[in-house]
């Protein structure tokens, strides 16, 4: 049984808490959160105790920490957790600054095997099955990857302000997805982007509509298409095209109900909210982390995966600024 | 907080235990099962205690019992539970014998509001939404209901032997579904049936392939089609046809993955096993039972719903035997 | 090159004329129709001439007649055509009266191989492919057939009056389809029916909503579900369930356009009108008839197929009247 | 009735011949083709005569010419046709060289309204309906366009050699589609491309796998994804994403047959060959050209549309060569 300290009792922390508790080999022992009320409520629901960060890190019976606090705290907490001998499950991203990410990875050198960076979408059952079949040769040699990723609707502008920009905040998932499916490192990046959904986003200097194209040394191409607003739900589709065919994931409708009337044949919309859409992914990624704790597998995605996704975001911004295809 | 005693710690009992524990207003307090090992294991997982049936019924802090034991015990346990002042959540069916069902309903007369008979499929999110739209007039006046219900594969012959026959064991769900969607009582029943999937079923005098048609006094028609073996998964579809259109539920695929190759465009199969296919239904039906406990709603399905579904099964058998349309 | 005389230049006659003209081995030579205007218009479009029935039958260079005139004329025209040495392509039905059908088949005894009865749905590309795969063993042993057949909307009451009743006019197609898919003769028939869509239909003593169930000697079951009004389009689906799986045809949407908005994911409705929905079937059935003319295949559907479908309609009516399962 | 001279009696010429003949307002009068055999066969089938190009152009009763000959002849034939006072329906492209296209458009200055350039995909019923709804505001303001276009399989290398390269030969359709849907001119183009499907294509210096991204002055983005080999059929999908939702076209399956077995739920593959997939588009584009002949509408796509699509191809090549986003 692995004892877990959860750092951050907000929305995503609550998701992880439930998965920690539901897993037969892990137990939520400690909840750390400056907001005492929500910390206490979460701790009580799972028989955990509310403690300080220092207590959590120095407690000898804690096996791992889960970092679900604000993005700006991630890098520091990773370093402190690893230094304290804990395994670390960190919500994406490691940091919004590539130099800070580099510094953190440098700081934990030799201990990379204790850091798991939680890009949840790799664990979506459809994506995981796509990857299994791809690796098994079901569609032959991979040639083209397409990632469509659109948020259901405009995020609050206060979120946008601290998000690091769309490529670092949202497209980062798609960069990880592209790398995961490609199985090769992109060496060229080109991007075009606009701000179309909300003048407030424009006022922040951010973008909301974009396409980024990646190419690997062997010539495989990945195309990412983004919007901050799909309006009908969370539009999340991945497509792998190979010499023998295609594997692709469709959106997940709320139910399989169909309505047929004079006004059309209407199905239910895709699940709207990311916590609902990726509920299974969060549970599966926790299972994977427990496998890491057991020493059965190396952490994947790793800190290096986190760094490489951020490098692609940096390159995409550079392409926008210079009007050039960026070589990596 | 409602304290629950669970009678029966087998497969379906475990499903109910998880839902009881997950609901913020209910707690699994007591597990009763003659097989001490599985009772203890289940009780421990949820902080409950293993007790005798007598203890459970006489314990003043138990609000409700959940009957998840063998079918032959249901009627007796309903009567004892009601007599002990408990609310009763009973797995379908009340009993396989209509006279026993009648006796039980007679015995609890005046207390019907404390008995909930768990026909889980009404609580499938797609079916529930279909019913909501139907009641809201989305497809106008209802005219035709179609229920396709096929088990994924042959059940063990030892199960078949004690099942009461396909109409009482399996089609009973479809009779309840037809009544639920129709919103009117059938007054005519005609059936044709065969035994095609397994000679062992034939040897037991049971059927495995059938169609039953129902008609209400106002002329609405419901058609049920059954097989004990769909081979590709659990084939569970409902269709309501009205004056303005149709509402229908499609099977639930394992994931939304699509594979396109020279050998065809292939999607994933429907979920195979009923516990997996109807996981959400079981959770939703427990929520409904908690509403019953809170006095917010009358129990539906009720004991009377259990009785009426069984009467339709009896009528279907009578139709097979006499070659007649049976009037109810 | 086969020279064809078309008897009847109405809606369905025009469909056949186009297919006759488009086939490299057939030519529309003569058009016969008491309404001279439409006969002339059709003849001119294809370089044919307008002639009397007598001329058509006595003309030595006419190889075959196509009967596309009013139902009441079919039986007589079949007999005259065969007597005149022509091959006969007859729109369904042979006649609405079973005794008249028997008399006609008696009259052409020994020449059955020259009569093709045009049940067009067998030639629908999806149905034809379903049948090919079924015969190739793709789903193992056939056990259950489901035919859903709903007209898009109410026919004019003047049509209903002379239609012979829904089972003889509309369900007759489904009886043929069931026999075609079953590959065995039904020996039991049971039916329930209502009149729900239009009081005018009720006033005519006709039905508009029904389910008919058939069973063969080996136990295969076929279920037909009908309505005179689907409102959203022509609802035409066939399903064959066997020991290894299922083959089923879905409705044909107008285009493959999908619209995703807050009000749902909406696809286009099924094709509405039978001439549009079955355009390919009509072309394919003409190709089949040319194969009959070339002596490559025996006519299928044959006159006997026409008779057997009508017998099933008669049995369905008898079941309604007697409240019994009818043995054939 | 418009009399038409068809220049080129090959595969695509035969498609146009059938549509010309089927239209009530047009007649195939003359067929011109150096290969006398196929010219004669086609002419006979439709009651036309085989004549020389000079005869066709000087014949006063010819209203329009259809250019379906080799690409290298298009520009010259357009100029001669217009000079002879004919309306011109020209298969795409006008020419593979932008300077030649410019020269031709210069040569016919003032007569642009007589030249129709046949980009057939605009006339696909699903695409046309998408455009109608987009223009009607069904998805609000357009933001993103996605065009997936993959040939079913490798073309003969002899074709590749004279094709002008993938962007000019195949992507040209997608450039036209993107412009058609965008309703605005792209002002920026970036591209990445590879050669992955066939070493013979590489040996020719051509590409077979690519992504091209376009951006308009208002910020709308269009993403084109291409491959020369989809293996499972002709992969042709268009998606328009706007402020209120999405309109997208799915591939067209051969039939609506579904097979459900233990090995998956399998539907039929997309139509494989472009003549089959776009049969309706060719018929619709002919109807549009007849509207042009009647003076009801201006030709669209026009010669200028042909030129602008080619300019986008040129820009895409330039982006590949320079590693820059190209400004137009």
UniProtKB/TrEMBL annotation, chains A, B, C, D:
Signal peptide: none
Keywords of the record: Oxidoreductase
A GO molecular-function descriptor: oxidoreductase activity
Residue span, Gfo/Idh/MocA-like oxidoreductase N-terminal domain: 3-119
Any single Pfam family the record assigns to this protein: GFO_IDH_MocA_C3
Domain GFO/IDH/MocA-like oxidoreductase: 128-248
Family: Belongs to the Gfo/Idh/MocA family.
Name of the protein: Inositol 2-dehydrogenase
Source species: Thalassospira xianhensis MCCC 1A02616
């Amino acid at each position: 049984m692995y004892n877990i300290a959860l750092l951050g009792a907000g929305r995503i922390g609550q998701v992880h808490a439930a998965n920690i508790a539901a897993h037969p080999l892990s137990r939520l022992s400690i909840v750390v959160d400056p907001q005492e009320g929500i910390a206490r409520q979460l701790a009580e629901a799972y028989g955990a105790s509310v403690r300080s960060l220092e207590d959590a890190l120095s407690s000898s019976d804690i096996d791992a920490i889960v970092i679900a606090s604000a993005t700006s705290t991630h890098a520091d907490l990773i370093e402190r957790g690893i230094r304290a001998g804990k395994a670390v499950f960190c919500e994406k991203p490691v940091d919004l600054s590539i130099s800070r990410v580099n510094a953190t990875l440098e700081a934990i050198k030799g201990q990379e095997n204790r850091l798991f960076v939680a890009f949840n979408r790799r664990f979506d059952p459809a994506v995981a099955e796509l990857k299994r079949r791809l690796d098994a040769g079901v569609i032959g040699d991979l040639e083209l990857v397409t990632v469509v990723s659109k948020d259901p609707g405009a995020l609050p502008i206060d979120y946008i302000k601290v998000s690091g920009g769309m490529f670092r905040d949202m497209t980062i998932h798609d960069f990880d997805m592209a790398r995961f499916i490609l199985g090769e490192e992109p060496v060229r990046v080109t991007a075009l982007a606009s701000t179309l959904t909300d003048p407030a986003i424009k006022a922040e200097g951010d973008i909301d509509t974009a396409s980024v194209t990646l190419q690997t040394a062997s010539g495989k191409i990945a195309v990412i298409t983004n919007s901050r607003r799909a309006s009908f739900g969370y539009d999340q589709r991945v497509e792998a095209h190979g010499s023998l065919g295609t594997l692709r994931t469709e959106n997940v409708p709320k139910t399989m109900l169909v309505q047929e009337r004079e006004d059309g044949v209407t199905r239910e919309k895709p699940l709207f909210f990311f916590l609902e859409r990726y509920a299974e992914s969060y549970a599966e990624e926790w299972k994977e982390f427990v496998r890491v704790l057991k020493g059965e597998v190396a952490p994947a995605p790793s800190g290096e995966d986190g760094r490489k996704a951020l490098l692609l975001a940096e390159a995409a911004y550079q392409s926008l600024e210079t009007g050039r295809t960026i070589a990596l």
